[in-house]
Amino acid sequence: MWIVFPVLPLPVLALLAWPALAQTPEEPPLHAGSAPSRYEVRRAGEDAYAFTVRNLRYETFGAFDGERSSPRLLTVVTDTTVRTDSEGTEGRVSVTLDDLSGPQPRHLATFEDPGSEGTRFGDRHFVTVQYGCCAAPNLFRLRFLPTGAPLYRATGPVPTGTSAFLEAPNARAALRRWAAFDAGLEPPAPGTLGILAYGGDGGPVQRLRLRLEGVTEEAFDEAFLGLAHGGTLAWVQPGQEPGSGRPSWPVQIWVLNGGRPAAAIGGFALRLSDGDGRPVAEIPVLADRLVPEGATLAPGYALLPEPLTAP
Question: How far from chain centre, in Å, is Cα 12?
Fold first, then answer.
């Protein structure tokens, strides 16, 4: 005897299974939140308008400490104002970092910088950009994200300005360094093209003033604009192509006898080039410091020690 069972269509089977699925309780979230963004449009004269925008965004990511990853919440608030009768954007970027590994969010850092955009690089760095108006250069401010400490201000191209990043993963302990060039000095100093800074996650450890002398005013302005808008920095290692890296992807420099202290690190150089790719200065790195006395400089250029100040 054959027993025939009816074959039900898939939608009917799904409906029959739905009560069983619906009975499974959903685990409540560990953390949740929301906040509004807003905009305003106002008249700013007879034929002009002013646009004010507040954008709020959340970013969640894992912060790795070498053994495990912990959840983090980044809250970024960007306030900008633009007018139809003028160029440029006025703005500020406010950032808050919280640890979400416990039952309640734990505040880690808060900071605020002028600018109209902000970008997180990995779990260690945050860059705010203030776009220049007319011939003024862009200004970039880099922060050490876990503490909010300022690291550098730089001019140059996006995304991080004229800058370079390196890591010596086999040093004692793993060493991270950056270099940045800032041509946005206010007020401008005669003969000075900008400040070259070198440092790590704790802030700058060295600053050098780049000067150009013995040239016409036109030649000085051309050199300034080339460095301010298109300058590049790169690490130069023997037998390898120069590289700049990024905050979340630095150039790796493997140190011989990796157990030795970080202060013994050297044997490579930092190269600063103008917007056309022409080298302006190549500075050796010895004992974890730039050595301006040993630099190779283009004609007319000079590097002078500069006191350490806040970025």
Answer: 54
Q: Are 84 and 44 in contact (CB under 8 A)?
A: yes
Q: Residue 5 falls within a domain, yes or no?
A: no
The half-sphere exposure of 177 on its side-chain side, counting CA atoms within 13 A, is 30
Q: Count of H helices and E strands in the chain?
A: 2, 20
pLDDT per residue as tens digits for the range 52-67: 999 999 999 999 987 8
Quote the domain boundaries for residue 123.
Answer: 47-306
What 3-state DSSP class applies to 40? strand
Q: Determine, yes or no, domain membership for 166.
A: yes
Say if 55 falls within a structural domain: yes
Task: Indicate the SS3 state at residue 11.
Answer: helix
102: in domain = yes
Q: What pLDDT, in 10s, does the model give residues 213-261? A: 999 999 999 999 999 999 999 999 998 999 999 999 999 987 765 556 6
How many domains is the chain built from?
Answer: 1
* End-to-end Cα, the chain, rounded Å: 89
* Alpha-carbon span 166 to 178, nearest angstrom: 6
Residues constituting the chain: 311
Tokens of 172: 């004692």
- φ, ψ for residue 11, nearest 5 deg: -60, -35
pTM over 0.70: yes
CA dist 74 and 51 (Å) reads 26
